[in-house]
Design a protein that fits this description.
Arc Repressor Mutant, subunit A; five-stranded antiparallel beta sheet; alpha+beta; disordered N terminus; OB fold (Dihydrolipoamide Acetyltransferase, E2P); globular; 17 helices; 6 domains
């Protein structure tokens, strides 16, 4: 480096986290290292530019890294510091673990004896020790950086005055010690199902010390099990008293002073289109014809920021939650129901405050003008998706002409998106028919039709144009983008080989032809029994979409600029977008610094993942509960996965997935891992991915959410 700064040898001049992140980055190429230019690019992409040069100088002084050529740096290899990485723990049934490193294809195997007090989902430092047979890395967890959660579900097991809370989750190596004092305080008894929190973990103790913070009903009870799913995911379902008090005094009051600060859209035709059972309507669409042949189409979003002010108990709780959580039978809202279902909800025939994106657009989707700002609207009608779809498919009804025109504009926008390289992922969403006791009596796959796509395309338009506006805004204020990185080509090639086993040919040679190849594939697989399996495999090859202040575009949508503006009732990042955009439009001080906003983005992404995990667990729970009434019945399925211990099968009728244990198949089979198949040594049946198969439900374990199948005779 051209200029060297003097280092204070008495202590660090930069954050330990930046030092660790830089060491981890350099360790990905321990021999060649990286040029200063590449290090700066890395720091900007990951929002780690502040103090970078000080950190480089300090690490050189401490002999952790070296400048081996002009402006080229590499790690100084030592046994102690080499290949220490940050990752997330994925525990297995055996107690062994894999540490998942972001951006790396191979996970790091950690034997049970080296997990060192880590729980499933914890963020940890893992140190590489050696290579396993076959070349995959093996390591040891040396530090728990951050717990994924501090509350767990367990059963009390009394033991001579004290007790242990045995955790329900299979993937947890440690039970919790419950002291005699805590037993007396909480009043728990043997076999009680409890919520336990980590209190302490002294170095000399093998198990953590727990405190009891709640009791649940027995496993198998619907309400108890749904609460257990939320606790397992680290999701809070009750609002604190301070938040409830704050919301209690809020009302929707329309004053002349407030209306004067907004664009009055109450006389413009406006509708909402939502699921038939929706209660929180956070978006509405308006339209009126203009004299120049264009239409003024407004996307109106609930003005949550008008009520949720930074620094309040309500705002702090909304941030902590990050998002609403949608389980099979309920919604755990980000905001109390008085706001989400009433004051902020864009119900029909009521004045509501909104933040709007208004476009002058023609039927071909060409935009002539756009406007962003605060508005007041008055919705003329609430449509369900089914009602709007009937109009699109030819039925007569109120506002048919307007709905058809909106659909034409949305279709044009969709075609533009695909022409620019967007990928048409169509994941199948499983829905349940529940009786009055919340027991599933039916399972079906939700179908997305034109009415769903109409709303989706107009929301995408608003999100895209808001992001474009902010990317070009004067002063370049930090902003919340929704980004989606390039896919992992190695994983895509593996997926291409897997698709060939199902009989499909995919040419995934470079990032340039991925979208065209995948879109053609999606059309070909649509409606086939293996559609859900293959689409989920394809999605897993893609990078995960995240929130960040560092805009790299959205690959899946083919948008160079994208954000989330349209759902502040249920997503905290949208609320941040509203605050940043409002300040920019009105030349007000910034909402937050880049580093503060980036921290909020990372946290929001993490909470989104937790919500998705809880949603998946609730679906799995209800699938197992549904099939628990079908034990002994036969179903047709498709082989969705093959492992050394069993064959996974997805049922065609209801998309439930279970496993046939190899021990239960009466044949001599050889597992061929490279081909992902079982080959019979006796001339019997071979088992390969994508094969049609008929099974019998042998067991449905609701407690562990597992389905056991056997081959039908």
């Amino acid at each position: 480096m051209a200029k060297k700064k003097k280092i204070n040898k008495g202590g660090s001049t930069s954050s330990g986290s930046l030092q660790r992140d830089l060491m981890e980055f350099l360790s990905t190429r321990p021999d060649k290292g990286f040029s200063l230019k590449n290090i700066i690019k890395w720091s900007l992409k990951h929002n780690e530019g502040s103090g970078l040069f000080d950190v480089i100088e300090e690490l050189i002084f401490r002999k952790k890294i070296e400048e081996y050529a002009e402006d080229k740096f590499r790690i100084v290899q030592t046994r102690e510091d080499a290949m220490v990485m940050t990752g997330v723990v994925d525990l297995t049934r055996s107690g062994n673990a894999y540490v998942i490193i972001d951006g790396k294809l191979n996970d790091i195997f950690v034997p049970a004896s080296k997990t060192n007090r880590a729980f499933n989902g914890d963020t940890v430092l893992v140190q590489l020790r050696q290579r396993r047979k076959g070349g995959s890395p093996e390591g040891e967890i040396i530090e728990v950086v951050k717990r994924a959660k501090d509350t767990f579900i367990g059963h009390i097991r009394m033991n001579d005055g004290f007790a242990f809370a045995e955790t329900d989750r299979q993937f947890n190596n440690y039970d919790f010690y419950i002291s005699p004092e805590e037993i007396r305080r909480s009043g728990v008894a043997d076999n009680d199902r409890v919520i336990v929190r980590i209190k302490d973990w002294p170095p000399a103790m093998k198990n953590p010390i727990g405190i009891i913070i709640g009791k649940l009903g027995p496993a198998g009870d619907h309400e108890s099990d749904m609460q257990a799913i939320l606790v397992d995911a680290g999701i809070q379902y009750d609002f604190p008293e301070a938040v409830e008090k704050e919301v209690a005094g809020m009302e929707m009051v329309v004053t002349e002073e407030e209306v004067a600060q907004r664009r009055d859209m109450r006389q413009v035709w406006t509708i909402t289109i939502d699921p038939h059972d929706a209660k929180d309507f956070d978006d509405a669409i308006s339209m009126q014809a203009l004299d120049n042949g264009y239409y003024e189409v407004g996307v109106h979003i609930a003005d949550v920021a008008h009520y949720v002010r930074p620094g309040t108990a309500l705002d702090n709780e909304a941030y902590d939650r990050g998002t609403s959580v949608y389980l099979v039978d309920r919604v755990i809202p980000m905001l109390p129901e008085k706001l989400s279902n009433n004051i902020c909800s864009l119900v029909p025939h009521q004045n509501r405050f909104t933040f709007s994106a208004i476009f002058e657009i023609n039927e071909a989707g060409h935009i002539r003008k756009e406007w962003f700002g605060k508005t007041i609207i008055h919705s003329d009608r609430r449509f369900s998706y089914e009602e709007a779809q009937e109009l699109i498919e030819g039925s007569d009804g109120q506002y048919k002409e307007e709905v058809l025109l909106l659909n034409s504009i949305a279709t044009a926008l969709r075609q533009q998106r695909f022409q620019h390289g967007a990928i048409a992922f169509e994941t199948q969403e499983v829905k349940f028919i529940l009786d009055e006791k919340k027991v599933p009596v039916g399972v079906y796959v939700k179908e997305r039709k034109d009415a769903h796509l109409l709303i989706e395309d107009l929301m995408l338009l608003a999100n895209k144009r808001v992001a474009e506006f902010m990317s070009k805004a004067a002063g370049q204020p930090p902003f919340v983008y929704r980004v989606h990185d390039l896919p992992d080509m190695d994983r895509l090639r593996e997926f291409g080989m897997m698709a060939r086993r199902f009989g499909y040919k995919l040419h995934l040679d470079s990032p340039d032809n991925i979208s065209a190849a995948l879109n053609a594939f999606m059309k070909e697989v649509h409606g086939k029994p293996e559609q859900n399996i293959l689409e989920n495999m394809a999605i897993r090859c893609m990078s995960k979409a995240v929130y960040t202040t560092n805009n790299i575009g959205h690959y899946g949508l083919a948008f160079p600029h994208y954000t989330h503006f349209t759902s502040p009732i249920r997503r905290y990042p949208d609320l941040m977008v509203h605050r940043v955009l409002y300040r920019q439009l009105n030349d007000l001080p910034r909402y937050a610094s880049k580093s503060e906003l980036e921290d909020k983005c990372r946290y929001s992404s993490a909470m989104e993942r937790k919500a998705m995990e809880a949603e998946r667990e609730s679906i799995k729970y209800k699938q197992v509960e549904y099939l628990s009434k079908q034990v002994g019945n036969e179903f047709d399925g498709v082989i969705s996965g093959i492992m050394h211990f069993g064959i996974f099968v997805e049922l065609k009728e209801n998309k439930c997935e279970g496993m046939i244990r190899i021990d239960n198949i009466r044949d001599e089979l050889v597992f061929e891992e490279n081909k992902k198949r079982y080959r019979s040594l006796t001339g019997g049946r071979n088992f390969e991915m994508g094969d049609a198969i008929r099974i019998k439900v042998a067991k449905a374990d609701i407690h562990h959410r597992q389905l056991d199948f056997v081959l039908a005779e």
